[in-house]
Amino acid sequence: MVFFHQYFLIFALCTLYVESANPIAQFCNEFSYTITPELSQNIDSVKAKLIQNTPQTGFNITEFGDEGKEVNGIAQCRGDVPSQECTACLQTAAKEAKKMCPNQVEALLWYEYCFLRYGTRNVIGDDSLDYRVVQYNVEYVTNPKLFKEILTELTSKIKNVSLEPDSKGFGKGEAKLSNSETLYAMSQCTRDTSMRYCEQCLTIAIETTGSLCENKKGCRIIQSTCYLRYELYPFLYGTERKLSLENSSMTKYLTVVRKP
User: Fold this and answer.
1) Are residues 183 and 150 in contact, defined by beta-carbon separation less than 8 angstroms?
2) Is the pLDDT assigned to residue 247 strictly greater than 60?
3) What pLDDT does 146 receive?
4) What one-character DSSP code corresponds to residue 237?
5) Phi-psi region of 113 (alpha: psi -120 to 50; beta: other; left: phi over 0)
6) Best CA proximity match to 168, nearest among 185, 193, 200
7) Rounded CA gap, 141 and 239, in Å?
8) Count of other CB atoms within 10 angstroms of residue 219
C-alpha cells in the first residue's frame, strides 16, 4: 500500500520511438496562475527565444515580460544530441506544451532529446518541485545478482561523470553483462542545478532503480532536475534502434508518476 501513497499508475504500454510528439514526461502546474492573453504572449516569446538560443550550447535560460507578468524559461538538450535534433525537439516541445497545458503558466516537459520548463515564478535553479516519472520494462533480467552489481557500479560511475565541471551535467557508459549482453546507461542534470542538488537528484534516481526498477531489463527515472536511464540495448544518439511491438518486448513499459 505504501507504493500507492506516493505513486499512481498511468498506462501499461508505451513504444519507444524518439520521433514521437508525445513527451516521456510532462507536468502542468494546476496551482499556477490562470493564463491571460498577456501571459500567453510572454510564454510564446520565452519559448521562441529558447528555441533560437539553446541549440548553440545545448542549454539556455531566459525571461520575458514586465514585472508581475514575467515568464522564466529553461531549455536543455541531451548531451549527445546534435544542434539540429535539439532544435527539432524544442520546436515539438514548445508546440505540445501549449496543447497539454493550455490554461497553466507553469509547465515542464521531458523528451528523449530535450527538456523544456517555464513559469511565472522563478523556475531557474528550482529543485522544489517534487515530481517524478518512472518507466520500467516489465521483463526481468536472468541473473539478478550479477545485474545488480554491474548496474550499481555503472550508475555510480556515470553519476560521477555528470558531476564533473566539464561534463555539462551529462554522463554515459556501458558495461558487459556477458559475451552477448551489454548494459547501457546515461545520466543528466539540468545545467541550472547546483552540483549539490545534481548529486542529490541522481542519488535518488539511482536508489529508485533498486526499488521500482529492481531487476528490470530497462528503466527511466525522470525528475524535475535530472534524468537517469539504463537499457539492454544502445539508445544514445546515432546508436538507438527502432523497436516494434511485434518483434521486441523491450517496448513493454509500465509508467508511474509521483506528483507534488
Assistant:
1) yes
2) no
3) 97
4) T
5) alpha
6) 193
7) 22
8) 22
The whole-number pLDDT of residue 216 equals 96
- Most distant pair of Cα atoms in the chain: their distance: 60
Full residue range of the structural domain in which residue 231 is found: 131-258
Find where cell 543528466 sits. Answer: 188
What is the H or E stretch that residue 69 is in?
none
Q: Are 75 and 115 in contact (CB under 8 A)?
A: yes
| CATH classification of the domain holding 58 | 3.30.430.20
Residues 227-246 have a mean pLDDT of: 76
Look at residue 126 and tell me if it is in a domain: no
Cell 565541471 -> residue: 165
Report yes or no: 137 and 243 within 8 Å, Cβ to Cβ.
Answer: no
pLDDT digits (tens, 9 = 90+) for 145-186: 999 999 999 999 999 999 999 999 999 999 999 999 999 999
Distance of CA 206 to the CA centre of its chain: 14
Distance CA 79, CA 92 (A): 18
Q: How far apart are CA 202 and CA 163, in angstroms?
A: 10
Using CA atoms, how far apart are residues 72 and 119, in angstroms rounded to an integer?
A: 6
Do 68 and 140 fall within a single domain?
no
Location of C-alpha cell 550508475:
155
Task: Please say if the pLDDT value at position 243 is more than 80.
Answer: no
Judge whether 125 lies within some domain: no
Confidence category of residue 121, pLDDT binned at 50, 70, 90: confident
